[in-house]
Amino acid sequence: MAIESTNDSNSVFNINRNAIHGHNEVFIQDVSKFDTKVMVGRDPYTRLYSAFIDKYFLLGKLGRLLKKAVDAGPYIKDGNTCGYNVTFNQFLDDVMKTALSGGELDEHIVPVSDLCDVCRIKYDMLSRQETLNRDTLYLLRKVNLTATKQTAIQEAISPKGIKHTIHSLIAAHLSDYATYREDCPSRVLHMEKVWTTLQIQGYVNKDVLYPKQTVENLREYKADKITSIILRGIESRPMTKEEKTQQRAMFVRHAYEEVNEESIMKIQAVFMKDFRFLNYDLTPPHKR
What distance lies between CA 119 and its chain's CA centroid? Predict the structure, then answer.
C-alpha cells in the first residue's frame, strides 16, 4: 500500500492492521513470471508462540474455539475476567493433531513453505522475519520509487516509526475487543494482556509495570489514548535493538521449557520444509 500510495506513504503504517488483511490480495495462480516474488519466513518455533499470544492469549475466534475444544474456563486475574484459560501446550497439541491428521490449519499457522507453494514458484527473494527491516530496505532499492517515497517508507519501518507501529497494533486489538467483548468483561485486564503481549514482542521493557490505575481512569478506551500510555512506558525504560532481541528470545525460551519432547518432534515434522528451506535451527529455543 505504501509503494502504491499517491498520498503520504508514511500514514499507511498508522492503519489498523486488521484492515490491511486482504488488501490487493494476489492469488498464487495469478502470479506471472514477470512479477517480483518475495517470500517472508519465520522461525517455526517463534511463529507458533507468536500465533498463540496473538490469537489465543488475546481475544479472537481461534481462542474461543480452542477454549471450547479443551473445555477450559475463562482467563481470570485479580477477580477480573478476559479471554480464555488455554495454555501454550494445549494450543500446540491442537495444532499438531490437526496437521498430522491432514486437517486444515489456520493461515497464521500453516507452514510458510506450503502457504507460499515453494515447490512450484521460483522466488526472486527470500526474507526472514528476524531481518525483515534490513531485507525490506534491500528490496526498496530494487523497486523503482521516488527518493521521497523511499525515504518515507524507510522512516516508517525504522525505530523512529514506533508510534505508527504501536497505534496500528492497538487499533487492531481494540477492534478485536469490540468484536469479542462478551469474552472480556474487563477492559483493564484486556489492556494488561495487551501490555504483556507488547513486552513479549520486545516493545515494552519487561521491568516496566502495567499502569493499571491510568487505564482505569480513562474515560475513552481509544487507540490514540492507549498508544500514548504505551509510548510513555516504552520511553521510561528504552531498550537497544540487542536488548529487544534478547527479551523476545527470553519469553520464547521460557514458553518452550514447558513443552515435552514429543511435541517438539511433532513441530519439527510438520514444519520441516520451513526449517530446511529457510535454514532455521531445528534445536528448540530452550536448548540453544
Answer: 26
Q: Supply 271's cell numbers.
A: 514444519
Find the helix packing angle between 187-200 and 241-256, rounded to 10°.
110
Cα gap 124→122, rounded to integer Å? 7
pLDDT surpassing 90 at residue 25: no
pTM for the complete prediction?
A: 0.88
DSSP 8-20: -GGGGGGS-HHHH
Among 221, 218, 280, CA closest to 252: 280
What's the length of the chain? 288
C-alpha cell at 193: 494482556
DSSP-derived 3-state class of residue 94: helix
Helix pair angle (88-100, 261-270), 10° resolution: 50
Give 143-164 pLDDT, tens digit per residue: 888 888 888 888 877 777 788 8
Strand ranges, E, within the chain: 38-41, 74-77, 80-84, 125-128
According to DSSP, the residues that pair with 261 across neighbouring strands are none
Q: By C-alpha distance, which of 129, 67, 88 is closest to 267?
A: 88
230 closest CA partner among 188, 184, 189, 199: 199
